[in-house]
Design brief:
Layout lengths: L1 H24 L16 H5 L6 H23 L1 H33 L3 H14 L37 H6 L10 H31 L1
Helix pairs in contact: 1-3, 1-7, 3-7, 4-5, 4-7
Length: 211
């Protein structure tokens, strides 16, 4: 829900700014708009006389939705940030404890020391063992296959955000949706939401003033 809300805010704000920028680059004239006087300033032709009634109505609607959603997300900040941290924490731990094992096994089996060192460094920086002790009996560390009974690893679930060091060291190939934006949400959710709200208000105010 947090991801969808932020995407909507981004898309709506971008649409408003794109329209505003397009109007600045394509000013009207007395031929296209009969209400535009011949002696109108260039900025007036790009803003004041460059929006139809339908465009003004649509802008007011979109700006209202941006402000409403921003306020709603700001009120739900505590719940959203906790859910984001809990979910991404689990995904990261599942990656460094389970998914990365196949890559480590292949690196050890193929005697690729540098690759093994990098993978183990990523794991050691980001991993959070359930009981606080490393599993030295992992067959992947010896380049061996898991036993027929399987190698069970219980991934903990905690509501903890990643540190900046963990973010910079972690490579998440099976989590393509975790982009820089979501990393910022994870680490700085309160700041991000406040900035998003301020940005949307700034964009709305600027466009509303010109229209």
């Amino acid at each position: 829900m947090a991801s969808q809300g932020i995407k909507l805010l981004t898309n709506w704000t971008t649409a408003v700014m794109e329209l505003y920028s397009w109007k600045l680059l394509h000013p009207t004239n007395e031929y296209d708009n009969k209400e535009c006087p011949k002696n109108a300033e260039a900025y007036e032709r790009a803003t004041r006389y460059n929006y139809s009634s339908e465009e003004k109505y649509a802008l007011v609607e979109v700006i209202g939705m941006i402000k409403g959603l921003s306020l709603l997300m700001h009120r739900m900040e505590h719940h959203l940030s906790a859910g984001i941290r809990h979910h991404i924490y689990y995904l990261v731990q599942r990656f460094v404890q389970v998914s990365i094992r196949d890559s480590i096994r292949k690196a050890v089996k193929g005697k690729k020391l540098q690759t093994k060192t990098i993978l183990l460094a990523i794991r050691d920086v980001c991993i959070d063992w359930l009981d606080g002790k490393e599993r030295n009996d992992d067959p992947a560390l010896r380049g061996e296959k898991d036993p027929k009974s399987g190698f069970h690893l219980e991934v903990p679930r905690r509501c903890i955000g990643l540190s900046s060091t963990q973010v910079s060291f972690t490579v998440l190939p099976d989590l393509p949706f975790i982009s820089l934006t979501l990393y910022n949400i994870l680490l700085y959710t309160p700041v991000f939401i406040c900035k998003s709200k301020a940005l949307s208000h700034c964009a709305c105010a600027k466009t509303s003033t010109q229209v």
